[in-house]
């Protein structure tokens, strides 16, 4: 495929050809690390989880007992907790993130766009453990003082808000997660909306649409696949978050719908118990890790496909990760 | 008809306001957190904080010297392992990445960037800590490297792809062999962008905690031996924040402020590198 | 020039980007039910001028407009005037066909209808058919109104955009180089359509193709460096222009 400017069989040519081959082999080796890593990860997790897979089968996913003494393990509370906390995070983060993205692409004055966008991206730079720290000492006291009393006064009778608030709770975890995933959803949505051809917006305006109507009926529909991808990406991040969650959620092995009560997630239980675990418990934690890996894998693959469909394979959003 | 138009325009104004409100609400936690870091963390920052190790449990004073050094060492090990692999893989994808293998690698890299870091932690525990028989900074570095590789791969690929084809053609026309064209011309041209991507990845892993829980573990003493457990700022914050002592809580804020500063330094230098090339970072 | 009362009239209109004037002090009347072509070399301000007529120019960053545009005697730039309402009465077709890709053909044509007032299903159907007939597209798409507009050829898409623009029954239709992205056959069909459109609408068409202007328009305005150099009935403009610059342009000596 290479066309060299000369085709002489000088002593140089074979050495140069050899250089190309070595170079390509070296780079391929580096690239091969990635699929190897992936396979090793899946394989290792599966092998280490095998004892509990064999012992409990599918019941592992549906039962709630987590008893290291009796050596019986069921991951239902963690799976439920992961889904509930992530869902709560999405409910809180998606409207805000979309609002920010629309503001930045459509309404914000030119000089304000870069600074505000940078500030929102800064939220993604804060380490998870710092979010946890802030959650423990600032957010939870705030919730306890100003949010829970009125919330329970009005909605305390519903299953979502019944129970006693001790501080560490699903609600606190959901809120922290929402703040953490907001910058990712916002950044990718912004890239997607900015890529919508201006003539789409102009066509709507020329028909007599108000600025909001132009966004709602022309710009957003055009970018909806990418925006959906952004949301799924946010979900993927929320599913895997560990430190902030383990610091504020209470780590109680209980399947409870109530947001004001403590809970547990898959990532949190691994962080909490792995170092002290042995034998079957450790295998159980590996199986939890396998399930978590599988779920985040599926969700992230879906997100990638959605965003790729809009951006056609370019690394849109890769910097947002 | 007139009222319909007025209603629509009013709706447009209201929705514009709503999006402004969203921006304000989104940024409120940012200012709150940064504000708290400065206000609560500044009081811990004294000379002792930076040069002493943690005091015995319950005692006042002490510092996070071991954690600061540990963070730098473990991030250094991770970068030394992860950056070459990531950059190499990225260059591969940009130059040879059209076939099925390239597509697979690209897809897996994207998917792996979303892997929960705690999973990587237990993976490295099984792979390195267990055979070694004890925790170590090296294991921590390996875990961080595994996290870095997919990130750096994708940003490197993107940067190399952005280099204009005309540069490659000029080199080939001069008689450069393919490997030299890539290594000396394309990569050199993309280098500032590659460095930016690398710095961003380093900023990300500097703040990681979960994978280190089972690999580096942490250490109350000052250690520089990579084959021994080591403390990092992130681990220290976790221990202090979840501990029972008021003093620990105070130190946690200080450590968080320092960690945030380190992360920002890497992040800002990444932006700086891009800006000096007149690219919109 | 015919002494008909003009539906649309620009008066001392200037348009600026930042400090630079792209359109300088243009006064031009568009008689009802005629086609006026705006010609001139690239960068002479034709498109900018067109966009001032439906108040689209002011949305560009750093853009300002001075002067007046009178629609039926009322200044669209008056303080109490409403840009959104104005754009309902003045339709626009763009250079690149830009149908809304997530809507069906039917929904595209109806897009401007649903903005204001509620029409019954029957009324919408009627309006869509009428607009598509007016755009000479009805026979080609009547069996696939629920299809995606992306399945249409470039020329068909542009006629769809014309249908979309005329469906709300505006008073004026502005066309910004509508055929520059199309092949000769599609161009011809659009040109024939423009001649039909003037029966119901006042048409202003910007074109860089002089032959096109000569074929389709009743009046022609020649722009150069932001100024309206000359304006008059099309046959005279091309055979006996009064200004030297006009003559130089239409004889092909520049631009």
Structure report:
Chain A is mainly alpha-helical and 321 residues long. Chain A has helices at residues 11-56, 59-62, 76-107, 110-122, 128-155, 170-194, 198-206, 211-222, 224-240, 243-248, 266-273, 279-311, and strands at 66-67, 72-73. Chain A has a single domain (59-311), classed as MetI-like (MetI-like fold), CATH 1.10.3720. Chain A has a two-stranded antiparallel sheet with strand order 1-2. In chain A, α1 packs across α12 (279-311) and α11 (266-273) crosses α12. Mean pLDDT of chain A is 88; it is low at 1-13 and 313-321. With 281 residues, chain B is mainly alpha-helical. Chain B folds into two domains: 2-42; 49-275, MetI-like fold. Chain B contains eleven helices and no strands. The longest helix of chain B is centred in the first third of the chain and has 41 residues, at 2-42. Chain C has 255 residues and is of the alpha/beta class. Chain C has one domain (8-250): Rossmann fold (3-Layer(aba) Sandwich), CATH 3.40.50. In chain C, α4 crosses α6 (154-166) and α6 packs parallel to α7 (184-197). The longest helix of chain C is centred in the middle third of the chain and has 14 residues, at 121-134. The two termini of chain C are 26 Å apart. At the A-B interface, α1, α3, α4, α5 and α6 of A face α1, α3, α4, α5 and α6 of B.
Provide a short characterization of the protein structure.
The complex is a heterotrimer of chains A (321), B (281) and C (255). Chain A has 321 residues and is mainly α. Chain A has one domain: MetI-like (MetI-like fold, Orthogonal Bundle).
What key phrases describe this protein's structure?
heterotrimer; A: mainly alpha; MetI-like fold; two-stranded antiparallel sheet; 12 helices; globular; disordered N terminus; B: 281 residues; mainly alpha
Please describe the topology of this protein:
The complex is a heterotrimer of chains A (321), B (281) and C (255).
Chain A (H helix, E strand, L loop, with lengths): L10 H46 L2 H4 L3 E2 L4 E2 L2 H32 L2 H13 L5 H28 L14 H25 L3 H9 L4 H12 L1 H17 L2 H6 L17 H8 L5 H33 L10
Antiparallel strand pairs in A: 1-2
Chain B lengths: L1 H41 L4 H5 L13 H32 L3 H13 L4 H16 L4 H26 L2 H9 L4 H29 L3 H4 L19 H9 L4 H30 L6
Chain C lengths: L7 E10 L2 E11 L4 E5 L6 H8 L9 E9 L2 E2 L7 H7 E4 L11 H6 L10 H14 L3 H4 L12 H13 L5 E5 L7 H14 L4 E5 L3 H7 L2 E6 L2 E7 H6 L4 H7 L5
Parallel strand pairs in C: 3-8, 3-9, 6-7, 7-8
Antiparallel strand pairs in C: 1-2, 1-4, 4-5, 9-10
């Amino acid at each position: 495929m290479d066309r060299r400017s000369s085709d002489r069989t000088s002593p140089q040519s074979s050495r140069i050809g050899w250089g190309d081959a070595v170079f390509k082999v070296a780079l391929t080796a580096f690239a091969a690390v990635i699929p190897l890593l992936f396979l090793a990860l899946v394989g290792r997790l599966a092998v280490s989880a095998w004892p509990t897979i064999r012992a409990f089968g599918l019941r592992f996913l549906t039962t709630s007992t987590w008893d290291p003494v009796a050596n019986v393990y069921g991951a239902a509370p963690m799976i439920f907790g992961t889904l509930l906390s992530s869902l709560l995070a999405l409910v809180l983060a998606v409207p805000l993130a979309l609002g920010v993205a629309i503001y930045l692409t459509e309404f914000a004055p030119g000089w304000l766009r870069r600074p505000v966008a940078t500030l929102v991206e800064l939220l993604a730079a804060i380490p998870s453990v710092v979010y946890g720290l802030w959650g423990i000492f600032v957010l939870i006291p705030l919730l306890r003082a100003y949010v829970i009393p009125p919330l329970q006064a009005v909605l305390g009778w519903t299953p979502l808000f019944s129970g006693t608030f001790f501080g560490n709770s699903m609600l606190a975890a959901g809120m922290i997660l929402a703040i953490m995933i907001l910058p990712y959803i916002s950044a990718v949505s912004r890239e997607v909306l900015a890529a919508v051809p201006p003539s789409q917006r102009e066509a709507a305006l020329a028909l007599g649409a108000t600025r909001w109507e132009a966004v709602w009926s022309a710009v957003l529909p055009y970018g909806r696949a990418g925006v959906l991808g952004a949301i799924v990406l946010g979900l993927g991040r929320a599913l895997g978050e560990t430190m902030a969650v383990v610091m504020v959620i209470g780590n109680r092995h209980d399947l409870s719908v109530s947001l004001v009560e403590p809970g547990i997630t898959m990532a949190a239980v691994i962080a909490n118990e792995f170092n002290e675990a042995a034998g079957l418990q450790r295998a159980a934690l590996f199986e939890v890790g396998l399930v978590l890996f599988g779920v985040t894998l599926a969700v992230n693959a879906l997100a990638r496909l959605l965003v790729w469909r809009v951006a056609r394979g370019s690394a849109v959003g890769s910097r947002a990760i | 008809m007139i009222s319909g138009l007025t209603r629509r325009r009013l709706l447009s104004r209201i929705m514009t306001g709503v999006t402004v409100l969203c921006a304000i609400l989104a940024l409120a936690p940012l200012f709150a957190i940064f504000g708290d870091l400065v206000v609560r963390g500044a009081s811990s920052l004294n000379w002792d904080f930076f040069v002493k190790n943690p005091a015995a449990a319950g005692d006042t004073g002490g510092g996070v010297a071991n954690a600061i050094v540990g963070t730098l060492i473990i991030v250094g090990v991770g970068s030394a392992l992860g950056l070459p692999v990531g950059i190499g893989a990225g260059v591969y994808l940009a130059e040879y990445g059209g076939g099925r293998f390239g597509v697979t690698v690209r897809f897996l890299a994207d998917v792996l960037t979303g892997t929960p870091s705690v999973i990587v932690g237990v993976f490295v525990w099984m792979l390195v800590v267990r055979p070694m028989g004890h925790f170590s900074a090296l294991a921590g570095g390996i875990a961080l490297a595994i996290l870095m590789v997919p990130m750096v791969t994708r940003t490197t690929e993107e940067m190399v792809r952005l280099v204009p084809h005309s540069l490659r053609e000029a080199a080939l026309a001069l008689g450069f062999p393919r490997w030299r064209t890539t290594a000396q011309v394309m990569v050199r041209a993309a280098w500032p962008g590659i460095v930016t991507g690398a710095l961003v990845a380093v900023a990300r892993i500097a703040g990681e905690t979960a994978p280190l829980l089972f690999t580096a573990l942490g250490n109350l003493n000052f250690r520089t031996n990579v084959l021994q457990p080591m403390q990092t700022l992130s681990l220290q914050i976790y221990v202090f924040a979840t501990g029972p002592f008021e003093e620990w809580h105070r130190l946690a804020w200080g450590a968080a402020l320092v960690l945030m500063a380190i992360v920002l330094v890497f992040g800002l230098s990444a932006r700086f590198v891009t800006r000096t090339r007149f690219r919109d970072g | 020039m015919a002494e008909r009362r003009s539906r649309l009239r620009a008066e001392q209109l200037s348009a600026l980007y930042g400090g630079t004037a792209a359109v300088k002090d243009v006064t031009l009347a568009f008689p009802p039910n005629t086609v006026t072509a705006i010609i001139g070399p690239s960068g002479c301000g034709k498109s900018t001028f067109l966009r001032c007529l439906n108040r689209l120019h002011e949305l560009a960053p750093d853009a300002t407009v001075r002067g007046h545009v009178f629609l039926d005697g009322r200044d669209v730039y008056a303080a109490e005037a409403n840009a959104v309402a104005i754009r309902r009465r003045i339709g626009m077709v763009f250079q690149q066909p830009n149908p809304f890709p997530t809507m069906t053909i039917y929904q595209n044509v109806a897009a401007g209808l649903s903005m204001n007032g509620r029409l019954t299903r029957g009324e919408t159907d009627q309006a869509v058919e009428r607009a598509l007939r007016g755009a000479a597209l009805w026979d080609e798409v009547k069996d696939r109104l629920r299809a995606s507009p992306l399945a249409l050829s470039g020329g068909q898409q542009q006629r769809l955009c014309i249908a979309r623009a005329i469906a709300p029954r505006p008073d004026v239709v502005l066309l910004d180089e509508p055929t520059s992205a199309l092949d000769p056959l599609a161009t011809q069909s659009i040109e024939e359509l423009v001649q039909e459109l003037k029966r119901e609408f006042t048409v202003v068409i910007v074109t860089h193709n002089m032959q096109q202007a000569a074929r389709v328009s009743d009046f022609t305005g020649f722009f150069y460096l932001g100024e309206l150099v000359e304006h008059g009935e099309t046959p005279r403009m091309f055979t006996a222009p009064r200004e030297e610059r006009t003559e130089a342009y239409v004889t092909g000596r520049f631009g």
